[in-house]
What we know:
The chain has 155 residues and is mainly α. The protein contains seven helices and three strands, in the order βααββααααα.
Amino acid sequence: MGIDLLTVGEVATRSGFAPSALRFYEREGLILARRTEGGQRRYERSVLRRLAFIRAAQHVGLTLDEVRTALSRLPASRTPTRADWTKISRSWRKRLDSEIDALVALRDGLDSCIGCGCLSLKTCLLSNPHDEAAEDGPGAVYLPEWLREPVPADR
């Protein structure tokens, strides 16, 4: 029985990624494609799992290098199992917890500041009167630390 191969269009439809993204991920070594005698790309059905992982990783905020590293831990000789994916996703737990904590702090800070109704630019922590926050370092120092980190250009 032969391997079930999918065309670029089929993978794009099933994964939600544009064909250009599929070609990009192939160039980056995140997914593999075979070529027909005519040079057309064909993907094994298991590439859909890798693409779902890439999508989830994007939502978590992993960089392309982090995605590449994670995917390199998957077995090349077989379709990854649930245990394989679980092992990789566990490494995200601490990062996700930090992101959740930072976003909750941001949400709660905005609620208490904006929700109080004062709208005072003299006392509002977000307004930073007289640039007093400059003493604490660069960036938006009143935001939780995680939200002050630079966002990589490849996200």
